Amino acid sequence: MSKSSPSCLAKSHDHERPHLESIREIVDSINEYMIGFLENVESWNSLKSLCTSMLNTIRNHKFFEFAEHSVLSNLYWGIESIEAAIQAKCPEERTDQLRNSERLLQVPALLDEHGITAGIQNQFLVCFSYFYLSAIKKLQNDEWQVALHYLQAMLVSPRLVRTEFAPEFCRDFFHLSNKSEIEDETSWDFGEDNTDEAIRQIARRYKHWLMYCQIMLHGEISGHYCRSRNTSSPDKESQDLSHVMKSSSDRSNSVKQGHCLHNYHKKLMQYEGHPPDLQGNRIEGTANEPNSNDIQEFQYYSNALKHFDQVPKVNIQNANLDNCTSIRRLQEILMEGESDSPTSVCSCENYDLEEDNSEAPCSTVHSMSTTTILPNASRHQMREEASEVNIDDLFSGRFLSSISDLDLRVLELGGKRSYIQWNSHLKRSSQKLVQHRATRTIQDPHSGENLNKFCVHYRKDSSAELIGDIEKVISKLCFSEGLAKFEEDYAGEVMTIYEMLKNKKGVKYSMLKDVMLDQLLTAISTSKEERVIRASVSILTTIISTNKSAIEDIKNKGLRLCDLAAALKRNVHEAAILIHMINPSPTEMKTLELLPALVEVVCSSNNYKEKPVTPLLTPPAASLMIIEVLVTAFDCATNNMHLAAINSPRVLRELLNFAGNNNPEGYVSLANVLVKCMQFDGQCRKLVAQCIPVAPFICLLRRDEKCAKFAALQFFHDLLRMPRSPAMNLLQKIRKEGGTKIMEVLVYCVRELPTDYQLLAANLLLQLDTLEDSSGKDSFKEEAIQIILKSVVSEVSSPTEQLSAFIFANLGGTYAWSGEPYTVAWLVKKAGLTSLCHRNMIRNFDWLDQNLKDAVIDSWSSKIGKHVIEVGKPVFYALEKGLRSKAKRVSRDSLTAVAWIGFEISKFPHSLRYSACEILLNGIEQFLHPGLEFEERLLACLCIYNYASGRGMQKLIHFSEGVRESLRRFSEVTWMADELHRVADYYLPNQSRISCVHTQIVEAHDSRSGAITSLIYYKGLLYSGHSDGSIKVWDIKQQSATIIWDLKEHKKAVTCFSLFEEGDSLLSGSSDQTIRVWQTLQRKPECTEVIAMEEPIRQLETYDQMIFVITQGHRMKVYDSSRTARDICKAKKVKSMGVVHGKIYVGCKDSSILELTIATKREREIKAPTKRWMMKKKPINAIVVYRDWLYSASSVIEGSKVKEWRTHHKPRISIAADKGRNVLLMGVVEDFIYINSSPSTSTLQIWLRGMQQKVGRISAGSKVTSLLTANDMVLCGTEKGLIKGWIPL
């Protein structure tokens, strides 16, 4: 015969079911071999020596873990315990020794067979363990487990079994067990590896079938094959052990073909005289009263001998009753299940299966058994006799009742479509049966008897079909081949059977149920085939969806989340549903690192778009629910880490596609995830606004569940934090999609939901109503405004108060796409703030954002402001209370609300405006004091200007002297402050007193980076450059300062900063000969450009797109927009400069000052140099341009108006430093000039600007290395890394 490949050898009959006789032959053959092995002392000692020599190899290893030594010890002492059990005389001692040995050998048996323990391959250790476990089971008289353990040893290491354990038996065994697979001796010669693989596949096949038959024949095999140590008596076990101890030299180790069937015949002859009981013990005196189980077994063997040549093969794909013994116990399950349910309407009147079963259970089983092995002709004849009543459309009444009486949710939730068809088919069949009975009764009064006879017969056939279906379903679970051919309806069938088994009590039901779960979990954890894993996961998901208690069963069975995670990562998307149903803790989810796989599942949501709707979650919906946990359940840092992983345009687009794919189960999670994404990175809001369909979220708002309403309201609230024009477009879309119902839903939310969500609903309701500009009874504006005002005056510093003030502050304003409120930026631009330096005193605003120029903001603010003011004085009383709130955010937001409402107040009667002024003015006044935030002082000026016009101007006379002085100082920033100061002086003339007392308001320290060499405000934050090249970013709030960023890009000292209007950027110059361009991206400063120089940099200034540089070599260069450099002022050595109004003023080392017109490139000397011998003593160390004055500092401080410098007039101000001193640093702000000179480098001198009078000094504590004046403040940095700030009060 030609040789065959091992693959063909293994697969030739993979899908055929072996004869039951073949399975019994395998069990008996292995048991016969094990008896011979135990009786043969030489074989025993030889194998033990082999194992011991293998264990002794650990002596060559100097280092190994204690746990490894423990595993090897368990194997050694497990073998010793078997010998002790064989030699023990007391039955109890033998039993204990065998139990101990089994417990010891289970430790190495559980090793990963692909690993290594103490230098020994686990494959050998596991194989030895299972082989000796097989011997233990033989000594315990558990013959079925003997075969299973032996086959497992063969699976682990076929080569070890066939070369060392049982070479002759292994060859004979395979030749005997499957002739079609190994026909002759030559078939073993195709190679060592191929032989091992062939043995492994054959052993795996028979092991699976043994496990399957063990369950399907549970109860039947317990008497003949499964006499476990718990059911065997000590005497019996003692006899078995004694028998083993007797040596039998003439006993053959090979197993002869046909031996097992011969044993069956011998056993059959024994049963004729003394049938055994369930325990295998002979019952004395009961020869004439045989046990029913023994009768069944006797009948089976009789029929097997008579029809041995005619026994048909059972095909697992067409499970039927051709082999009765394999489903006998399932018949009992069905009968007991039927006995618990009442008789249905279509059951026969004169037939009661329960009564028949109770009278003769053995005969019933026997009759069904014999029916299945009838010749084909007899079965065909029987079905022909029944065909006249349309047997295909009839169902047993009791069958219909038992299945239909299951919990309806089982049918609804698990494969809804298929089960609706199944139930409708059952109903149609039952109706036909009733109609047929009625027709036959009318036509033939004796037809009832005939119909009863038919129903008796058909009831058996229906039960048989159901049992066959159950056998088919469970058999698929036992083999990967069955799961690999998974069909959609199969999950529903398994779920139905599982539910049926769960509703029954008894060991056999629990055992079948456990087998189903075990097989599914094993497939998930061990299978390498994606189809098998997907089928197992889908079936488990279906079971859990209808039976939540199954989750605990599955957990108790050892379901590991890591297996589901691995399945998910292998593109088994259904695993996401199962993980969600199991509901692990957030920490467990985090450790599984599921996020990338979950994102891929969500990105595949289009694949589920066309699939029929089922009550089960889709994998994308389940994945979204898990993602929601990962981005919300942890601390801020962990949540943000997870959000960063999904914050990409591709993922966001797929999330938005999910909203359009009809997945309502995941909409709540989708809304929450999108909210978190927008809060993490506001730039994704633009993508969401452009692509998101609003209909799903409107549906969320309409749902009865509060969690759905909460998610929808939070989503709309965060999404609407966008520029005003696109926000209005979104509102129109919401109103169009939601219709009038959306307003009714929002009114319900305003009245019934918790306070925070009332506010969100009121905000959306007010904006939608304002968009329509509705009036009269249908207007909901007033109710919405009252809800917001009520919350503003709620509990102090509560989250509700803060949320309501935030909503009110930005209701009439706008946002950036990042979600930052830009109402303040819009207001201060309207107040006339244009200076780049002053704008950078305000944080978090991009002044180049084109949305600040949106004309829609003004019209929207006017429209909604009108509705707010119409409510009357309650609005102003609520805002006044908000202005005085102890919560800084609330008071600031209230001031913003007062400011934008003030633009509309002028259109209302003077009486209302005057009342508003009386109510609000005192609260606004507090924001004018020096030292407060720059934008707050600016908003306060704007509010007073709008509310105090007309009669309200007289209120200005009640301002304190400090407030009026603050208006005077602020008059440089905005014309409104200057005009208010003039009005106050008009009503109450007052000679201003200048306070020279400076109060320290801030101190910050960081000595790790050396001296602070430069300071500047950028985006409302203080930047400090250090001598080690680092840049620290400080957040200064009142008297505290916190480092929020530490930037280390420069290699040497950062010597200067400058604001760059192009791109709203910051420049830093360094001694490392580079200029770096910084921009704030996603709230973090990022270096966007590096400009290389040839020399270290001393000072930077910018104008338009040009950068002016002074180097350490006193050269001056200019860079244009293309970063092309050219030298200017080549004839001079430049020391300092200042840029203003398109001109640059340059201080030189020879004490001269040049004026350069940038547009025309014209140079002009406005101050001549000193005499040559004094040149080194009088360089211009600093130039400051303040308002229309120019100040220069060398050994003398001189100041005049710029025009007067051009005409060479004598300076108006001339302050001479002490003899021998030279001014190093100079700053000018309002009334004061601050000077740092040598040798008193640790102090700042304070001079009155208008009187040329020194009024004091302030100490920095160490050498001052940098100076900055801004917003009434003066700040300095020292060589010890200290920042100090003062303000005149």
Automatic annotation (TrEMBL):
Alphabetized InterPro entries for the sequence: ARM-like, ARM-type_fold, ARM_LIN, ARM_LIN_2nd, LIN_N, WD40/YVTN_repeat-like_dom_sf, WD40_repeat_CS, WD40_repeat_dom_sf
Domain (Putative E3 ubiquitin-protein ligase LIN ARM-like) ranges: 630-983
Pfam families the record matches: ARM_LIN, ARM_LIN_2nd, ARM_LIN_C, WD40
WD repeat feature ranges: 1005-1044, 1047-1079
Disordered: annotated span: 227-256
Biased composition (Polar residues): 245-256
Tree of life domain: Eukaryota
Record-annotated Putative E3 ubiquitin-protein ligase LIN N-terminal domain positions: 23-175
Keyword Repeat recorded: yes
Occurrences of domain Putative E3 ubiquitin-protein ligase LIN ARM repeats (ranges): 465-628
Keyword field: Repeat, WD repeat
Entry-linked PANTHER family: OS04G0584500 PROTEIN, TRANSDUCIN_WD40 REPEAT-LIKE SUPERFAMILY PROTEIN
Name of the protein this chain belongs to: E3 ubiquitin-protein ligase LIN-1
Organism: Salix dunnii
Classification lineage: Eukaryota, Viridiplantae, Streptophyta, Embryophyta, Tracheophyta
